[in-house]
Amino acid sequence: MSAVDTTTTVTHPDGTVVTVTTRTIDGAVAEDVPPIVKDPRPRVLATGGAGFIGSHTVVELLGAGMAVVVVDNYDNSSPESIVRVREITGCAADDLILVQADLCDEDAVENLFRGYNFTSVIHFAGKKAVGESVQIPLLYYQNNITGSLILMEAMKKHDVKNLVFSSSATVYGDPEKLPITEDCRLTATNPYGRTKLFLEEIMRDLHKSDDSWNILLLRYFNPVGAHKSGKIGENPNGIPNNLMPYIAQVASGKRKELSVFGDDWDTKDGTGVRDYIHVVDLALGHVAAVKKLEEKPGCVAVNLGTGTAYSVLEMLSGVGKAAGKELPYKMCPRRDGDVAACYCDPSYAKEFLGWEATRGYEEMCEDLWRWQSDNPDGFNTPS
User: Dihedral sign, CA of 230, 231, 234, 239?
Assistant: First the structure.
């Protein structure tokens, strides 16, 4: 592998002048490669930080006074999200650095840790479509697990032992009880969920072997909504895999109707119910987790949800109300692997992190619709 570094002076839109090293690796250009001399400023590394949850978390980290480096390969994200994060926060150029790299590239990850002084890492990066994971499991295991191992090896080498991991409620599989508490049985029904479960086990083993590691395993339920500004939100490539962006595209006219899988579940209206959490609340949960790492808590799993379950039809109605129209849908047979209900007991997050979700159902739907209506083509829409 051949690498050539070129140093240039860049003037940002706010007038700030910075020196940027651009590295060309085997002919491919990576932007904002770390400077050759290590930057001493303490920073949080957000892997996959240009994605849906990552970009909202970066906004809140900056708001909490933390400097951030985002590393992303843009596989399911866009650098435009970080441009808009800068617009939302008005942050100084040095407060937020963007690096294009893949965690499966050991050299790129090593360069990242040689270049910056990380105090903690939030690990969002990974492939996340359940259906796709069933079709191409090897890619999910290769990407999600190998990339995470390379990241943790670099963290160990550079003595960065504070980690917040983006886990998922999928590790509970078909839940043994409701509401779900952190001590519920762990299982997984698809390769995506198993990558999360396997990584949790690896991280527990890592902490067991060396208790100087502090790792918080954040098990998300169903993130929805968008930033109040309407500048950032969920930007799926192609047909959305998740319910709420699909509903939003039905509301905007991009999709004909919503397919509702099952109307005979043992729920309030016969459709499946889930624990939906506003993405800004989820982002604030990450800020609380990063601060908690300072107390050296060990390796701990925490549910991040609201504890309130809404049905598919309720969410459809909520977005329809925000959009001022009734949204079309059709009933379809149940899908294999679906469950009637999934929601958490969030009390431990309040006790342990001092965090709880405060944004409700209407705000989730209104903020989602604002993002969709202001950005019908996602980040390809001029801001």
Answer: positive
pTM for the whole structure? 0.90
Spatial distance between the Cα atoms of 252 and 16, rounded to a whole number of angstroms: 39
Q: Write down the pLDDT at residue 189.
A: 86
pLDDT, position 198: 98
**Residue boundaries of the structural domains of the chain:** 3-380
pLDDT at 21: 45
What fold characterizes domain 3-380? Rossmann fold (3.40.50)
Q: Catalytic pick from 116, 140, 192, 220? A: 192
Tokens of 220: 């998300």
User: Is the CB of residue 125 less than 8 Å from the CB of residue 177?
Assistant: no
The pLDDT of residue 325: 97
Tokens standing for 215? 């790792």
> In 3D, which of 147, 144, 139, 262 has the Cα closest to residue 197?
144
SS3 18: strand
Provide the CA 72 distance to its chain's centre, in angstroms.
12
Query: Mean pLDDT per 10-residue run, the chain (383 residues)?
Result: 43 41 45 62 97 98 98 94 97 96 97 96 94 92 97 98 97 94 94 96 98 98 97 92 94 96 96 97 98 98 98 98 98 87 97 98 98 94 77
272: helix, strand or coil: coil
What pLDDT, on a 0 to 100 scale, did the predictor assign at position 8?
Answer: 39
By CB atoms closer than 10 A (0-12, 13-18, 19+), residue 321 is: middle
How far, in Å, CA of 361 to CA of 278, rounded? Answer: 8
Q: Closest by alpha carbon to 354, among 312, 302, 278, 298?
A: 302
Is residue 192 annotated as a catalytic residue, yes or no?
A: yes
- C-alpha to C-alpha distance for 351 and 54, rounded to whole angstroms: 24
Minimal CA–CA distance to 354: which of 308, 297, 310? 297
Question: Residue 264 is encoded by which pair of tokens?
Answer: 């005979």
**SS3 assignment, position 314:** helix
Within 96-242, where are the H helices?
106-115, 130-135, 137-140, 147-157, 191-209
Q: What is the longest distance spanned by two Cα atoms in the chain? A: 62
Respond yes or no on whether the N-terminal peptide bond of residue 297 is cis (omega within 30° of 0).
no
- The C-alpha atoms of residue 90 and residue 94 are separated, in whole angstroms, by 12
